[in-house]
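Repro:
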Amino acid sequence: SFSLAMPSARAVADADSCSANSESRQLDFWLGDWTVTYPGMPGSANSTVSLRLDKCLLTETWDGGKGHSGENLFAYSSDDKSWHGMFADNQGRVHVFGGKVAQGSAEFTGPSRGPDGKEVLNRIRVVRLAENKVEQSWEKSADSGATWTTEFKGQYSRKNH
């Protein structure tokens, strides 16, 4: 008989593999508590990046100030050997991304719809500039990636370093 209380041997092995899997660890440079600034921004925003689900899920919880907050989730799938991401905020925006992560940088892309109903392509990049500095940019393209407009470019500075 099958019991939900007893995980299968395979489930235990998979859970253990995230902490040891080098692909799953590629975004760990972003872990920590951050102060975020960007051009034209009065004051600063805050971001906390942490690991959950036995180090299988990287979560960014952010507060952009002025009542705007959200969570970004990133995980490496051993099934399709790809990174996946999801952005959700308290204004009802949700974006789903596919991505690639290399040493010290990540790029996620995914479609959404603009106010006019037309498809927009979104591209998020997270780049390690130094041990305690990371840059995140969000760009949008209305022409399937031929041209891009920067919507957000934030400088992350590690707190308490």
